Structures are given as structure tokens and as C-alpha cells.
Amino acid sequence: MAGTMMGPGMEGMSSSNGGTTMNNTMYMHHKMMMHMTFFWGNNAEILFSGWPGTRTGMYVLALLLVFVLSVLVEWISNSRFIKPRNNPVVAGLLQTLLHAIRMGLAYMVMLAVMSFNAGVFLVVVAGHAVGFLFFGSSVFKQSEIPSYEKPSDLPPMRC
């Protein structure tokens, strides 16, 4: 075919008589492009292809899941799971496992924010704020020792 342009992702585009035609494959590929700026709406893909879809109830469920993930990151970041009397090797392995879980959850939250959905972004910020309020701040601490003197098992997350 004269004037056929074949490049990565350009299957089905051809130039004939000075015009450009697209087949259905290219149209569907173009239609499913990812947002690169924040947008409002419930028609978003969060974490998995095709999820939550176009139904509002599934979007609300996705927002709830992302909220819980961000609260869990704060809970793990500010909790003490390791007893001081533990064997140092066991304590180190448990600390490593907790770090891996925390980082996995944090990256899942980051990937959800990368959907560029404004609702997801607001829910993540709210989840981290609520998680810090309950687990990191001194508002709900029953201890006489201030929270800044009693570190958690994990070092703080750094940027």
C-alpha cells in the first residue's frame, strides 16, 4: 500500500490520497488513553484495568479501598509490633517484613493517585490525615510518654 506509515502503536493508520484513515483498533486504543491532568468524575481506572468501571457504586467502593489503604500505611508507620525482649534476628526479620508491607501499601496508594482522579487524590490525603490523627498524633495516645520520644518499629518514610 502506498504511503503506509507503520510505527509503534500505529498499526492500521495509512495515508492514501492525502487523507488519514483509522480502523477500529486505533480508535479504541486512542479512546483508552490515560489522563495526564487531574479530572473530576467517576469514570476512572484505579489500580486495575477496567476497575471500577462506569458505575458510581463501584467508584465509591474504590475510593473507600484507597482510603483504607492510606490509613493502613499510617497505622503501620506509627505502631509498635516488636517487643523489646525479642531476639534481635527475629526482631530484624519482623521489622523487614513490616517495612515491605508498608512500602507495598504506600506504592499501591501512589499508583491510585496516578490515576489523576481528583476524588482519589482527596481521599488519599484524607486517609493519611485520619490515619495520622488516630495513630501518629498525641490526640489518642494513652501513654504518659510523648509520642515523639517513643518511636515506632519502623523509621519514618522519607521523600
Automatic annotation (TrEMBL):
InterPro entries per the UniProt record, alphabetical: Cop_transporter
Compartment(s) where it occurs, according to its Swiss-Prot or TrEMBL record: Membrane
Single GO term (MF): copper ion transmembrane transporter activity
Bilayer-spanning residue ranges: 57-77, 89-114, 120-140
Any one cellular-component term (Gene Ontology): membrane
Pfam families in the record: Ctr
UniProt main location, coarse: membrane
Membrane-topology descriptor: Multi-pass membrane protein
Keywords for the protein's UniProt record, in alphabetical order: Copper, Copper transport, Ion transport, Membrane, Transmembrane, Transmembrane helix, Transport
Domain of life: Eukaryota
Family per record: Belongs to the copper transporter (Ctr) (TC 1.A.56) family. SLC31A subfamily.
Name the UniProt record assigns to this protein: Copper transport protein
Organism, as annotated: Nelumbo nucifera
Taxonomic lineage: Eukaryota, Viridiplantae, Streptophyta, Embryophyta, Tracheophyta
